[in-house]
Amino acid sequence: MASVPASEFQKNFGEWHERIYQGPVEITRYGRPTAYLVSAEMFQQLWERFRVSMPVEQLGIGELEAIAKAEVATDQLYELKDIPDDMPKPHD
């Protein structure tokens, strides 16, 4: 991923704008990332996958019922016991 100080980004916006088609551009200030510039296409892809997490206690009855009825589309049958206990845990 390309990285650029904010002052350089500001001076040469056109150059950095063109580079977003190769991948995201990290914009830094005092050596720390403060923003990322991505193409419109990448932003749309990220936005479509955006999810909000919340404690289960905040879910309503309708949401809980929908979760209980949900199924995973797969060609292979599985049970919860088939999932290994040592699966990587998401970071908090």
UniProtKB/TrEMBL annotation:
Annotated family: Belongs to the phD/YefM antitoxin family.
Briefly state the protein's biological role: Antitoxin component of a type II toxin-antitoxin (TA) system.
Q: Which NCBIfam families match?
A: phd_fam (TIGR01552)
Record protein name field: Antitoxin
- Which Gene3D superfamilies does this UniProt record tie to the protein? YefM-like domain
**InterPro entries referenced in this protein's UniProt entry, alphabetically:** Antitoxin_Phd/YefM, YefM-like_sf
Pfam families attached to this UniProt entry:
PhdYeFM_antitox
Classification via SUPFAM superfamilies: YefM-like
Organism listed in the record: Peteryoungia desertarenae
